[in-house]
């Protein structure tokens, strides 16, 4: 019996070794730098208690609790706090939080770049993680802007992912470095305390005040062979575990409001149990990678003897034996969220509602009315529930409800349609630009649908309207590393807490454009999903012009002169959009344009350079010869007008975008999926036809994704257009010249533009 067990163990280990041994490039840690705040930010335990007492927020009982926690915490008297804590009145602003983060990020980055001597233009990947602080444009864009990184740098901004986010960012960089060769990856990890000091009376939220301090780190990784000798370390393994599927683990650290509406992070008594329960499977997975063969054999023999060879072990062995290589990525299906009719809001009703709220003067209301009349939105877009109340006083609970309705509404339908089991999904990527919470939205989804503990999750924030296609590009790269797997992408936005109630006109535009919406998308690299998928993912192109101050500042989340937060949009938006889209189109053109189009462009370009006096007109490639459906982001009527003029495309080509703007408004990163649903519902997607999704947003960033239809795609019951598609297209009168569309035809295709 013992001999049989020993043979089984040896077979298991040999199969695991052979199959998991892949040809992957080595990843090195060249160097890292930790931020050390200036001495004037040092704060002893006694000084913290004194400062908290002088603030007037806390009773003596709560101050005694804080004192006891500090005495037992293990913290010394030379830790660092942010500047706002040393003021007589704790009244933090967005500018205070931004200053704290910039000091930590730039302080560590300046040291790292000086130490390593690496040029910013040579860095190909940038990953930034900051759990609670989130802004638009993102911190990653702020870094690109400050250090003038190149336009094609790959950037991701992770939020809400807790204290493990730094190592999760390392793991993400390791995976991206398997796909993007001969480059550097820069990782920046920090946290903001400025706006997150709890000043209420809930004892379970006090621990954060006592433990967390200012700090940050910048880490430089490389997969360049020439960096072998000048690196400090080689990265061998990165193992991540997620037990958010357990309600007990998910709720042990939770950002929420107390009974008085004050925001804080609740830490329950389940924290230690959750930590042990999560660390245990992580150590088990790590053991398979690093323990000597003797230790593995002893562990396996003991486990098999105790459990008498349960079927799950045999199943795991079969999975490893059948693991195959697949590089093609398929889109199995997607579902766009359609809110209930109770949330429909006409332009007239919206103006009536905000007049009742009492925040705006008649002059501002007239300005909003003009925006509505020229904005391209219809009278059936959706707002969140908080807008229909007598007064606009949104809470985090209401924002969470909006996000949950959108995410769960789309995910429930997608999982039902596809029949894919949640324990078979290996990758989860969630993007939501402005709304940020802890645990993250990705953890919330894992908790709701009980995903497996080894699922790879990333939560993107602050990355604007292009984040949905950025998430698609990230999933594509991860699916090159993790074979035989599914990737789930969820794109949404929250408008509940982001309605601007001030008097700055440059921040009013957001109020008139953005609406409730979201989408869930299921990708796969499993060869047997070829026949049941809707599309094959061909290309994902991203570029970033945040290195331009003009473009970086054209959309920015900031406070106005009286401290009211809002998203500022200036007149540089259109110029930024066109300037960012242009290099994206050039890169895409090299991949998809026929040789004739490429030659025509190059010949006219050379003639213009050699013979400038001839004033020869530059040839504009006809992308209609390479793609059948063009779906640009519905940024707003002015943006669509300018894009149409620049690309010289017809009204018919822009139909899906304009109708989406009219019916659903700007739903941020999910808008392009409502456009694809529109084209599907019209019956225009035929087998072999190509679809080009183009999105752009704050930073400034632009993303293009090219799909090829695997079959003819028609509408279904879960398509948000199904019940009303026969009523479209419509004539959109925007106060100037009406835009007319060609008649609808379910058999028509866009042949050129």
TrEMBL record:
Signal peptide location: 1-25
EC number: 2.3.1.199
GO cellular component entries: membrane
TM region positions: none
GO biological-process terms attached to the record: fatty acid biosynthetic process
GO molecular function: fatty acid elongase activity
Domain FAE residues, every copy: 23-306, 326-610
Top-level EC class as recorded in UniProt: transferase
A Pfam short name: FAE1_CUT1_RppA
Domain Beta-ketoacyl-[acyl-carrier-protein] synthase III C-terminal: residue ranges: 626-708
Alphabetic keyword roster: Acyltransferase, Signal, Transferase
Catalytic activity entry: a very-long-chain acyl-CoA + malonyl-CoA + H(+) = a very-long-chain 3-oxoacyl-CoA + CO2 + CoA
CDD domains membership: CHS_like
InterPro entries: 3-ktacl-CoA_syn, ACP_syn_III_C, FAE1_typ3_polyketide_synth, Thiolase-like
Pathway: Lipid metabolism; fatty acid biosynthesis
Family per similarity comment: Belongs to the thiolase-like superfamily. Chalcone/stilbene synthases family.
Protein name per Swiss-Prot or TrEMBL: very-long-chain 3-oxoacyl-CoA synthase
